[in-house]
Amino acid sequence: MELDSRDVSDDAMDGLHENLAEASPAVGTAPNGNFSVWIFVDTATARQADEAALKAVTAAAPAQGITAPLVGFEVLMEDELDRRNDEPTGPALVGTARSPRCSASSVSARASSATTSRRPSPR
Hints:
Layout: E1 2-3, H1 10-19, E2 26-29, E3 35-38, H2 46-63, E4 70-72, H3 78-86, H4 104-117
Antiparallel strand pairs: 1-3, 1-4, 2-3
């Protein structure tokens, strides 16, 4: 879940992490700079997970002085989280190419033999 705050102290993050330790939390900063909390809850349904997560975080955050409003929330079942984590994070590698190895002497030798084997055209 994401809270509308960009100035949560490290101490508050650490305290929230400790308070939610049973839920294997990940606390930090969302890509847009807001405060972010991920927790894992063991429930049978997404609705139960929704309720359990909201209850846990909204109870633990104010105890650490984090009172920002909730601006985003997502529930993922474990299979979906695993699927997303297995997706590549960058483009697939298309292929590789090897460049020919040439030294300056082999290039110049080829160039000089090419110029010496040419005959001037008759006029």
